[in-house]
Structure formats: structure tokens, C-alpha cells
Specification:
- It is a single chain.
- With 341 residues, the chain is mainly alpha-helical.
- The chain has one domain.
- The chain contains eleven helices and four strands.
- The strands form two sheets. The protein has a two-stranded antiparallel sheet. It has a two-stranded antiparallel ribbon with strand order 3-4.
- Strand 3 and strand 4 form a beta hairpin.
- Helix 4 packs antiparallel against helix 8.
- The longest helix has 29 residues.
- The radius of gyration is 21 Å and the shape is globular.
- The N and C termini lie far apart (52 Å).
Amino acid sequence: MADVSAERDGLIDGMPRDERGHWQPEGEKLPSPVFDWPPNPRKLAKYLFNYLFPWNLIYMLIAVLTVTFLQPEMSRMTRFSPDWILYLFARNQIMLIAIVSAWHLWLWGRKSQGFQFKYTAEWMAKGKKKFLGKNQLFDNIFWSCVSGGTIWTAYEVVTLWAFANEYIPYLDPREHPVYFVLLLCAIQLWGQFHFYWTHRLLHWPPLYRAAHFLHHRNINPGPWSGLSMHPLEHVIFFSGVLIHWIVPSHPIHAIMNGQLTAFSPAQAHAGFESIVVNGKSKLRGASYFHQLHHRYFECNYGGLDIPFDVWFGTSHNGSAEAHEKMRAKRFASHKVRTSAA
């Protein structure tokens, strides 16, 4: 397998790279047309199709199947009991390991497509003291499962217990089928809204030093890096499920919310823009927008479905011009702070 040290400034698996081995997809990633005015029906229809297919529909299906076949009866969850709580913990851990491992093994373990569509020309770090066991993969798996899987399950347990005891508003899909489906479709948008604001909070210096720094050790992220976080960050990250304590929902909505939060970071941090199948088919892979956040830290805090970064001037498209603009903004901010001191 080619290595960046051997082929800098050249082609690796047919991908042109800069002097640091970074590959940049062609074309700027534009915000969703949902907020365009006047609206463009053609662009909007294309966006909605891509929004739902395939990954959002897959997460919906996983949630429905989970609640239908792998969920304890609601009557069992009226009391906190080790039997159903440990069952949910084991179920979640097995699903988390299976889904994230599938991404990792195909792209990073087997290296099935080499460096094709890979944003960097490096693999998982080994021998670096900043990672547990000096191994990035081991470190990422540890934090994802031991902390992430546990805190995700804790939110799920309390939410299902509240549903079972009718402490939070319940939505009957037989009475409100349209609302049920629309709410299911909106969960990803809610996730992006919640992620942007909590992510900005985590970049507040005291919280960054206390928790978020751990996630940002992954400058070259892989699938297991997505959920590799400090426990305090996991508490904040999974808190989006609390919306179902206020908005009338069904347990399927709450389960999908938690699963989307747990599973989708593997894709967002996969490190490859596209997944190649049979040498030709391509599935949408990682977010280049978020990949740049791991490279530059102070940009692209959210996603493009709700373009907060575009609106607030923190968007970075990977170009040299965008980087110079960000450096100038940093320098100006530094001057203001030092002059005030």
C-alpha cells in the first residue's frame, strides 16, 4: 500500500494530493437549499432525496426493527430493574460494535479501496503517547464503548422508563400517522441543530480543556474516532434525546435519536468521501465539511443541512483562500485580546 512519505506531491491511488498528503474533493460543498429564497423546487427535491436516501432511511429502519423485535415490553420498564437495563446495554454495545466495525474493517482494516477518496494518506496512529496504549484504534474503541455506549444507554433507559410510566408525552402512530412519519424524518435535522450548539459550547476554552480535547486528538479520524469522547462530552452529546421529554413522540423516535447519535459519527469520521463497491458503485461516505474541522479546529462546527457556519462566518471549504481568511480572523482576534490585556 502506498504511503504519503513515498509519494508526496503526486498521485496516490489516482488521487492528487498536496504536500501534506491531503486530498480535497472537487467542487465546493454548498448548504442545503431548504433556506434559499425564493425556493428552487428542483434543488429542493434533489436535496430531500439525498437527505433521506440511503442513510436516513437505513437509520429509520434500524430503529423500527429494534423497537419491534429487540425491545422489552413497556410493562417491564415501569421500574428500574437490572434485567432489562443490562439487556439494553448489551444490545446497544453489540449494535455499536457491529456497525462501527463494518465501517472500520472495510475502509481501514482491509483497506478495500486503498487511498481512493481518502482525505489523508495516513492510517491509524501507533506508538503515540497521547492515545491509550499508544494506539489510536484501541483508544477510540475504549472511549466509544466504555463511555459512549454506557451514557447512551443511560439516556435510553431513563427515557423508556418515563414513557412506560406516562411521565412524558406519548404519540400514538395510529392516531397521528402523518405527524409520526414527519417527526421521524426530522430527527436528523434536530440532531444537526443540537450538534452545532453543543459543539460550539464544547469549544468554550474551559470545556475544551476539560473534555473536548480528547476527541480532537484525532486529527486523522477514522470510524471509531467519531464517538471517541470524554464522558462529560458524551453527557452533552447524547442530551438531544431529551427533546422527546417535551415533544409528543413514540419510543421509535427516541430510539432512532439515540441510535443516530451513536452510529452516524462512524460515517461522519470515516475519512473517505465515497465508499467504492465492486470497483464502480459509490455510496456517500464521510463529511468533508467535518473532516476540515478536525484539521483546522476553529471552523465547520456543524453541518450543511442547517448552515449555521455559513451564517455565522465560520465556514471553511478547504481552499487556500478560506484558510488565509481564517488565519486573518484569528490574528485580528488575538490582537484584540492582547491589546485589551
